[in-house]
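Reopening this ticket.

The earlier resolution said the output was attached, but the attachment link was broken on my side. Pasting everything inline this time so it's all in one place.
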Amino acid sequence: MIIREKDYLKKRKRKYLLASLMWLVIMFAIFLLGYMTTKTRGNIYTVLAAILVLPVAQYSTQLFVILRFKDPDPETSKQLESIKGKYSLFHSALIPDEKRILYFDHIFVTGSKIYCIMENPKDINDTKRILNKKLKAKGISLNKVVYIEKEKTKDLGNLFKKIEKDAIIEREEDLKEYTQLIAQMMM
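Inline output:
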């Protein structure tokens, strides 16, 4: 089952940009309406416009946080989506930490393993350390987690076959538990 679509970030960026602009326009319209009707800035419309800075700030902050990330390779996404069996697939997985946001192009969850696939990892060791800490705190054994650096993987076909073998093994309870844990950690 696909939990997060392959164009998730593109859709989110568009949504946050449009929402930021919409609230900004509403905020200025209310301020100008108040200024034009009362001929002074000191009115209730100015207070209302000032309050509307909050949704503008919220949406624009969310936009700036995800702006540096991009959606994964569509071909790899398509190959992962064509795998047979029971699984949960998260494209463009963003997992926040105290200091940074971990980005995985794909997280493929089966009943026996959690595959974290990265196309161009910047600091792989730090990313592994942080996610391992989070998963361990949730009670997930670290031998269930597999990190895959796509650029270092020579034969993706064999990798996808291995993942498919894990997806065919029916462990419904574990799949559900792992999927919920990953979904709770994501933003």
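Reporter confirms the inline version is readable. The radius of gyration is 22 Å. The beta strands are 2-4, 88-96, 101-109, 114-118, 145-149.
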